[in-house]
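REQUEST FORM: STRUCTURE PREDICTION
Request ID: SP-0412
Submitted by: Lab K.M.
Chain count: 1
Length (residues): 271
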Amino acid sequence: MKIAAAASIGCLLAVLFQLQTPTSAGIIAILSLQNTLVSNTVLVLHLYAAQSVHPALLVNELLLLLTGTSCGILMNLYMPGNSAKIRRAQSELEQIFRNTFHRIARDIVMDKQLACTFFDLSDLDLILKKLEKEAHENQGNTLLSDEQYFVKYVEMRKNQKLVVEKLCQNIRLLHDVPIQAHAISHFIEDVSIKFHESNNTQELMQKLTEMQTSMQKEPLPVTRTEFENRAVLYRILYDLEELITIKKRFIETLTPDEIKRFWNTSQNCCQ
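STATUS: Completed
RESULT:
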């Protein structure tokens, strides 16, 4: 609808202004809605076809450019971009994260002969690439509204995905299921339930700190296996701390206006 409206209005205005090749204004309007610099090529080809740089022709091309780009910009200002597609991809991404944490929480307390030895995170990679592409296109096609939020959001989730990779690797290092692993499993399950953009991380960070303090007060390991398992558990806790800290730093970059515009503040249970 945006493309049809911009092209029609651009052509109509060019006809009213009595410009040569008025359809070019419509083409430029279409190109102005896309993330490209291609509009200039249309004008250069006109000059090449005319074999002239007569001042009148240059003025005509300038007016075509102004007419077409103005229509494209106005359509972007007053008509929605691809934010709906971004939100759908965002919802899909967060659901994949939740499913992954649920599997991790289950496997950390499962018999190591039965637990999954490989976590396939390829779905996360695919949806992150899709979301990153949509976020940059949305930012490039919007003039007045600052859509930097989605770009920052994608970068935050990409960093968290790297932490999840480390978390999965560390879980595979456990020889058996230490008693402390059950508390960590419950915490990871909590992360899974509360994983969403509008969580401020305060509750999760507090719970994690309490769990770290509790583990530090426990008796020292006796056997070599206990020592190795305890070391792995601490690495897992550090991974979880990094995961939450990445989100916390993302929140610190947001303005009150961004939080008001992009967060559903009624959902105060998410990570």
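NOTES: Residues 224-252 form the longest helix (29 residues).
Reviewed by: T.R.
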